[in-house]
UniProtKB/TrEMBL annotation:
The lineage of its organism: Bacteria, Bacillati, Actinomycetota, Actinomycetes, Propionibacteriales. Pfam families: ADH_N (PF08240), ADH_zinc_N (PF00107). This is Galactitol-1-phosphate 5-dehydrogenase. The keyword Metal-binding applies. Keywords: Metal-binding, Oxidoreductase, Zinc. One of its GO terms (molecular function) is oxidoreductase activity. It comes from the Bacteria. Belongs to the zinc-containing alcohol dehydrogenase family. It comes from Kribbella capetownensis.
Length: 344
């Protein structure tokens, strides 16, 4: 099979690898589309501490069932050629963290395209229990966005935001756009966002959100003017810089919620005395549980959630170009690579 392999920091090679063989309980999928995640850009540059040269990136994908390994339960068997996606996050399922329902932060978790070869390739092997059939849905190809959508579903669920409330999303990249979609779907009445890249603004506005200034002082002033002097009920930082984290805390109303989602900076300072005195609840959100991934697949496939950003589709051979373009600030909401699979 063909695969896009990180041969060195900042450089991919399109190479031919042996077809992976599914082991016990596994299914092989012929990949038709594989999305580039913003988290992979740090791996491309050698700064994320996870992805290393020799790895095939990719964890957002759709494809078709190609083969089964032994010992796959009959109830998990789908017809060959069935359209599917799969949860790319593998947790042990037996540790106290998993048993408590926090599979997303299992200490033994492994991510496709992070710890093990991912979907920027013609074929990929995954546990059969992780597979979700999508060809029954009106829009099965939308499942290429299931992984980031699941992240957004979890983040919104980590707050107390409810229908009729107000919310601010800082950063309208792919996760920010999907946060706005989930908030719209949940009936949040006042939606606001910030974004520095002009090419992403229209997509955020399409979810019914109003753009505010990304200047920290102006942002706080604007959000208070629009919420009767209070601030937003919930604020989501989808960037993760020191400045956006501080802005998020200052833009929340007394008794409101702040959810930190973005991972741009490893550290940051927060105005803790002010947060305590206003009793602002701060939380974090990472990845998603298996049920949230399944929910994302269904909501996208039925058109109840829509990824509204610009989508660019390109062949695997163009992968190097598009990773470079995204790092340079290309406004595309998502770049989807398409492996060439004869007969699929």
């Amino acid at each position: 099979m063909q695969a896009l392999v990180l041969s060195d920091v900042g450089h991919f090679d399109l190479v031919t690898l042996d077809d992976p063989v599914p082991g016990p309980g596994e299914v092989r999928i012929a990949v038709t589309e594989s999305g580039i995640c913003g988290s992979e850009l740090g791996g491309f540059l050698g700064t994320d501490g996870l992805r290393k040269p020799g790895l095939v990136f990719g964890h957002e994908f759709v494809g078709v069932v190609d083969a089964y390994g032994p010992d796959v339960p009959m109830e998990q068997h789908l017809p060959l050629g069935a359209s599917v996606t799969a949860n790319p996050l593998r947790s042990c399922g037996v540790c106290p963290i998993c048993v408590a329902g926090h599979e997303n932060v299992c200490p033994q978790r492994k991510l496709l395209g992070g710890h093990i070869h991912g979907s920027n390739a013609g074929l990929i092997v995954v546990p059969a229990k992780a597979v979700h059939r999508v060809d029954h849905l009106p829009d099965p190809s939308s499942s290429v966005f299931a992984e980031p959508t699941a992240c957004a579903l979890r983040a919104v669920g980590r707050t107390r935001i409810s229908a009729g409330g107000s919310a601010l999303v800082i950063g309208a990249g792919p996760i920010g756009l999907l946060l706005l979609e989930v908030l719209r779907f949940r009936g949040v009445e006042q939606l606001f966002f910030t974004e520095r890249v002009e090419g992403r603004v229209a997509a955020a506005e399409a979810s019914g959100a109003t753009r505010l200034s990304d200047d920290p002082e102006a942002l706080v002033r604007q959000i208070k003017e629009l919420t009767r002097g209070l601030g937003a009920d919930a604020v989501f930082d989808a960037v993760g810089s020191a400045d956006t984290r501080t802005s998020a805390t200052l833009a929340a109303r007394p008794g409101g919620d702040v959810c930190f989602v973005g991972l741009h900076s490893a550290d940051g300072m927060l105005p803790l005395r002010d947060l305590i005195r206003r009793e602002v609840a701060c939380t974090t959100s990472f990845a998603y549980r298996p049920d949230e991934f399944g929910q994302a697949v269904e909501l996208l496939g039925r058109g109840e959630l829509v990824f509204r950003g610009e989508v660019v589709r390109a062949g695997l051979a163009d992968g190097q170009h598009w990773y470079e373009q995204l790092i340079k600030g290309h406004p595309a909401g998502k770049v989807v690579l398409q492996p060439s699979n004869p007969g699929t």
